[in-house]
Amino acid sequence: QVQLVESGGGLVQAGGSLRLSCAASGRTRSNSAMAWFRQAPGKEREFVTAIRWSSGITYYSDSAKGRFTISRDNAKNTVYLQMSSLKPDDTAVYYCAAALSRAVNLYLLRNYDYWGPGTQVTVSS
């Protein structure tokens, strides 16, 4: 079992920055990849970014590319999401996810096995 807990969410003005953290515990050695998804009110949960744990290869959605950066700290079993130039459209609950299998397509929600409870990010205009 893997447990994920997000932190770092909050209220920020448009153009500001925020860093989210996701601390993993349990059988973290089995993790193949970790990712961030988000879900805005009335919308489906969508992919934001992912990182392959062993190689560090990263993937970004079009909306995240150039503004968001995903990184990991192997010693702390933690993945981070550095967000800059935030927009009101970034307002959502941000979820951390972990995939056990080495899935080819890390953009798909169904390929992840564990999820954190989420952390709210609100960007005011």
Provide a brief overview of the structure:
The protein has about 120 residues and is mainly beta. The chain contains no helices and 11 strands. Strand 5 and strand 6 (about 60) form a beta hairpin.
Key words describing this protein structure:
four-stranded antiparallel β-sheet; mainly beta; seven-stranded mixed β-sheet; globular; 125 residues
Describe this structure in words.
It is a single chain. By secondary structure, this protein is mainly β. Helices cover 0% and strands 51% of the residues. The chain is built from no helices and 11 strands. β4 and β5 form a beta hairpin. The radius of gyration is 13 Å and the shape is globular.
Write the layout of secondary structure elements.
Blueprint: E1 2-7, E2 10-13, E3 18-26, E4 33-39, E5 46-52, E6 58-60, E7 68-73, E8 78-83, E9 92-99, E10 114-115, E11 119-124
Parallel strand pairs: 2-11
Antiparallel strand pairs: 1-3, 3-8, 4-5, 4-9, 5-6, 7-8, 9-10, 9-11
Low-confidence stretches: none
What does the overall shape look like? globular
Task: Note the run of SSEs as H and E.
Answer: EEEEEEEEEEE
| End-to-end CA span | 40 Å
Helix content: under 10%
User: β content, as a range?
Assistant: over 45%
Q: Radius of gyration from the CA trace?
A: 13 Å
**Record field, number of beta strands:** 11
- How many individual helices? 0
Overall pLDDT: 94
Main beta sheet: 7 strands, mixed
Q: Briefly note the structural class of the backbone.
A: mainly beta
